[in-house]
Amino acid sequence: MPKGDMIAAEYRAKIGAGKAKRGRLPRQPSALEEAFAQQVALVGLPEPVREYQFAPPRRWRFDFAWPERKIAVEVEGGIWANGRHTRGSGFEKDAVKYNEAAALGWSVYRFTSGMIDSGAALRLIEAALRGRGEC
Question: In this structure, are residues 36 and 74 in contact, taking their beta carbons and an 8 Å threshold?
Fold first, then answer.
């Protein structure tokens, strides 16, 4: 059995057969998310919480969050490949999520691959954290 299938099978066994149909497999971070996390660590910024659920009981999560400062980062992959975030349904759901986050006082920064690769995302988050007394 391939490694991914074993992980999926173990997960389904843990959550129970009844919930397996509704439950989601744990999401693996993308290469782009890993690149951003490495940049944050390399410059010595405080470590963010990954996959932070910000509005329970909703299952909404931020890719990265500094909850004590209500600063969040969403890494927007697939923007040039008709990914989930650029199709109508996904875009609509994202708008609801981001508006709710704003209503709860969160600053949500959305970064593309170009922004992460160029260092622009890191510079902006560093400035945001410094501006709120985090760094």
Answer: no
